[in-house]
Amino acid sequence: MLKVAIILAVAAVLPVFFVITWLSSNYHRLCILRKHCDELRAQSSSSRDAHNQAAAQYNQARNRFPANLVASLLGFKAIEPADGEQSKRRGELV
Known about the structure:
Layout: H1 2-62, H2 67-74, H3 84-90
């Protein structure tokens, strides 16, 4: 009788142990992926800021004399700053 009780207890506890192990490993994996997404979002934001700063410097230099003459003759266009909405329309990470 005691053997049957022990076998039943092990049979009940063992699957629970494996389910808890599986859940904790998946939780850990999801935490790592969320952290990676947050890092990519931060890089994307800093890259967008760097682009906007470089675009502003280029546009200022392009609009000064005599660069504005050269730019208009050679077809140098103004650079639009990147914003979140443009990036979303293009399907990029924001």
